[in-house]
């Protein structure tokens, strides 16, 4: 597949074009999707452990509510740091290496919690696990997206989000079984040896991204990966050219700041839209997922009913992911996001007026859980496609960090000020205003990326 010198280089397709026009095969791109999806599933599993560990450790160590809150807060802060750190590292050392390291780090430090008997050490380990965990999502999406053919990329990246409710459900079921059978809070943590084993699957089944290799000037390695994928998919053998590129600077402590500058230098419009969308939509999601049981109990619902209804809201999200996967290419990224995010938030506004109606509450919770999971996969797909290869990991990572800020501060502001001042419906109404403003900003400043070839 070497370049034919008798044919003008401009007449040859590029390596990127060949890669992104291959047929989809489960034994090729599919195995990358599965390995990446399992990593995403374990992300959800690890995050969900916070909700399980807080009541268990509160009883084990006689913690106050404020002390126990640090278990989740430390993990969330670590995720914010990790989203920036690993997005930048992935753009410098490669998607494959970064993905393997994120899996290993959050597994090791989650397991380290088994060995501690104090809150201080446990909080530190949850922070460090979060550093690995927060990096897995942006690296994961960059890796899977760069191997997926352009005409399938929207559905594949949207389907990635289906691994999240699966991981959250497994965390609950497996932890309930382990605690119910043996009664030891350490056992759910021991289950996190599984992501560490996934590192071996990364080494065996996931090649390095040819787009990254070309950015590094490793043309021979990039050609080997592309040629291998052409062979494995059964696509016609074609001559192609690999454009020479300048290698990025070596990874250093200043790399994070340098990469942030590149993210903004690429396009202030794209970065502004990415950050605002993540902040508005993900803050609404985190408010609902963290505070809905409390809101229902305050409205007079029994504790078990509050937990069951909230669990149903999360579980039905898998249906939303399926719907999102079907619609994302038919409607386009922007159109689907512009409709689904405001509709999901509007359901919470109606919920605020209907807390005294049990049937309405159940239907609205299920509706919100489904529609918000139509929106979130499209958001992840859209933002990952807005950036070019050299800043895709860090661009997504910085946007993800903004969402973690919303996750940490948004629910606190909502519960401490917005809900007491404006009432539940009014507080969700303010959230709806923010989501609509973000969507309008997207429609004005950012392009659609449906079927666009990644550069």
Automatic annotation (TrEMBL):
Q: Cellular location of this protein?
A: Cell membrane
InterPro entries linked: MFS, MFS_dom, MFS_trans_sf, Sugar_transporter_CS
Q: Does the keyword Transport apply?
A: yes
Q: Where are the transmembrane segments?
A: 32-56, 68-86, 98-115, 121-144, 156-179, 185-206, 268-287, 307-328, 335-355, 361-383, 395-418, 424-443
Protein origin, superkingdom: Bacteria
Where is it chiefly localized? membrane
Q: How does it sit in the membrane?
A: Multi-pass membrane protein
Q: Which UniProt keywords apply?
A: Membrane, Transmembrane, Transmembrane helix, Transport
Residue ranges annotated for the Major facilitator superfamily (MFS) profile domain, each copy included: 32-450
How is this protein named in the record? MFS transporter
């Amino acid at each position: 597949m070497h370049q034919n010198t008798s044919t003008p280089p401009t007449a040859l397709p590029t390596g990127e074009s060949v890669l992104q026009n291959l047929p989809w095969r489960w034994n090729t791109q599919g195995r990358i999707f599965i390995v990446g999806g399992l990593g995403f599933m374990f992300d959800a599993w690890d995050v969900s452990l916070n909700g399980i560990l807080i009541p268990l450790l509160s009883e084990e160590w006689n913690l106050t509510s404020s002390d126990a809150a640090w278990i989740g807060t430390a993990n969330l802060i670590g995720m914010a740091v990790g989203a920036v750190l690993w997005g930048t590292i992935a753009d410098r050392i490669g998607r494959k290496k970064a993905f393997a390291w994120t899996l290993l780090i959050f597994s090791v430090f989650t397991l380290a919690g088994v060995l501690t008997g104090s809150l201080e050490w446990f909080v530190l380990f949850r922070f460090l696990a979060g550093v690995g965990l927060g990096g897995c999502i942006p690296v994961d999406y960059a890796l899977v997206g760069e191997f997926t053919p352009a005409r399938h990329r929207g559905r594949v990246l949207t389907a990635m989000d289906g691994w999240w409710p699966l991981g959250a459900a497994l965390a609950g079921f497996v932890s309930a079984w382990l605690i119910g059978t043996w009664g030891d809070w350490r056992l759910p943590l021991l289950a996190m040896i599984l992501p560490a084993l996934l590192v071996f699957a990364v080494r065996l089944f996931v090649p390095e991204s040819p787009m990254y290799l070309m950015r590094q000037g490793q043309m021979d390695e990039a050609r080997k990966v592309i040629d291998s994928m052409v062979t494995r998919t059964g696509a016609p053998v074609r001559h192609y050219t690999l454009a020479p590129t300048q290698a990025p600077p070596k990874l250093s402590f200043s790399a994070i700041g340098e990469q942030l500058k590149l993210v903004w230098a690429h396009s202030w419009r794209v970065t502004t839209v990415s950050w605002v969308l993540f902040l508005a939509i993900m803050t609404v999601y985190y408010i609902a997922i963290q505070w809905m049981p409390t809101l229902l109990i305050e409205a007079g619902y029994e504790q078990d009913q509050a937990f069951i209804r909230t669990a149903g809201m999360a579980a039905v999200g898998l249906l939303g992911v399926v719907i999102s996967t079907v619609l994302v290419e038919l409607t386009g990224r922007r159109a689907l996001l512009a409709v689904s995010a405001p509709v999901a938030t509007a359901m919470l506004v109606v919920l605020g007026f209907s807390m005294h109606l049990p049937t309405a509450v159940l239907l609205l919770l299920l509706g919100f859980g489904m529609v918000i999971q139509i929106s979130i996969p499209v958001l992840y797909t859209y933002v990952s496609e807005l950036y070019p290869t050299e800043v895709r990991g860090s661009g997504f990572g910085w946007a993800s960090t903004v969402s973690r800020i919303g996750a940490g501060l948004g629910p606190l502001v909502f519960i401490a000020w917005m809900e007491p001042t404006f009432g539940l419906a009014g507080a969700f109404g303010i959230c709806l205003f923010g989501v609509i403003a973000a969507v309008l900003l997207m429609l004005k400043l950012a392009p659609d990326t449906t079927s666009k070839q990644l550069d």
